[in-house]
Design goal:
alpha/beta; Helicase, Ruva Protein, domain 3; Dna Topoisomerase Vi A Subunit, Chain: A, domain 2; 5-stranded mixed beta sheet; two-stranded antiparallel ribbon; globular; binds zinc ion
Amino acid sequence: MAQLAKLPGIGEKTAQRLAFYVLRAQPEYARALAAALLEVVDKVRLCPRCFSLTDGPNDSLCGYCTDARRDNRQVCVVEGIADELALERTREFKGRYHVLHGVLSPLEGVGPEQLRIRELLLRLQDTPVEEVIIATNPDIEGEATALYLTRLLKPMGLKVTRLAQGIPMGGDLEYADQATLARALSARREI
Ligand SMILES: [Zn+2]
């Protein structure tokens, strides 16, 4: 129960409810759940190019990077995996992704070297990318990160765009509805 309560968004009451559910279910369910959790830990790792999750063999690229139908000329930079999934649900974006795994946050001691920024710059040097869409959240840290990236990317001759308004300031991409997110993507502006 204590382990369940550590999960994000799960308070003690919910942890209790989940634990009772597992206890009441068939023992096979608990075993399957434990096996699924272990499988995630053992198999899932980060793609060496875009840092999305993948369960492919070691050092192999993820599905987003290898899908030949996706456009190499656009790279969408997101804070985390959940944002990438939210954008993917809109079915509007057909380019590649780059997951930063966080945002700049001096107060929490997160600087550029803690994010996958160096990897992004290296990657952009040897791929035919024309546009980088910065899809960090519209909050203070997300905006600061977008500004920081723009200063690095513009001198490289890249078109840098930012998702349009529609996502409220302080809002969270992950929880934006599909229509709002699709609109923000199609009406993105150059910065
Ligand atoms: Zn990838």
